[in-house]
Design goal:
mainly alpha
């Protein structure tokens, strides 16, 4: 499950970065904002997984 969540986080980060870049390049502020939001969502998911890994018993 954790690996799946981490992969989903990376996917969201990558997709968000692409949308943000494309939106900026073509001047589409809506697409740029959606990209920023998606990238942030991926960042939060990655942080959550990192925190879960930190508190796991060894």
């Amino acid at each position: 499950m954790a690996a799946e969540e981490k992969a989903q986080a990376k996917g969201e980060q990558a997709a968000g970065k692409v949308k943000k870049t494309v939106g900026g390049a073509v001047g589409n502020e809506s697409l740029k904002a959606k990209g920023k939001a998606e990238e942030s969502q991926g960042d939060l998911r990655a942080a959550k997984e990192k925190a879960k890994d930190a508190i796991k018993p060894k």
